[in-house]
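1st attempt posting a full record on here, be nice pls
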Amino acid sequence: MEWVGLLRHGQSTGNVAREEAESDGREVIDIAERDADVPLTELGAQQAEAAGDWLVRHPVDVVVASPYVRSAETARIALAAAARQGARVPEQVTIDERLRDRELGVLDLLTTKGVRERWPDELRRKQRHGKFYYRPPGGESWADVVLRLRSLLRELHADAAGQRVLLVAHEMTVFALRYLLEGVPEPELLRIAARTEVSNGSFTAWQHGADGRYRLTAEQETGHLHAADTPPTEDDDAAASLA
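the predicted structure (as tokens):
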């Protein structure tokens, strides 16, 4: 692939519910839907609309999105906004389950306090194995997410050779791509993740060089959001920060 970009989905109702639960000191996040069905907020839809301006200046050939509603809707809104401005956009968005958010198993819907109070043994196990390899019961580790993303990239390297590919997915996907495309080793990756804010509606991108390596060319860009008077939000996904 000539170029790979990652658009994080716009703010979701799940992001808001999680931030509220953490701020209130609750153990459980109040979300009625399953994670795959959590929709965008009104602000999240505006962020997706503003992402269309970025795509006007950075046209893409292929778009692949997570099947989760918040990501698929972000892709649809952003491409429609770019097309209205006369940009060249792909005829369709490919939905691929390998781009889904990390599954948390028994820790799903729990806040940091909830995990500490209800699963103290899991916190100790996480400390032993480390954040990259720790897999909560019934869930996935960071390494599991990397494995399925590696499979997708291998197919795209073959099917979209020489093309500009945009992935529309989740906060966690940014770090998985840095590991796979740049070869960032595990210890450094976790240090980067600890200090990096991946705003809703932000773009991260990598350019393929003549030496065969990918180099980071856009790092969580939000200029398009500010230009549209749409505030970026830095609501964490539990999959990237909780476990």
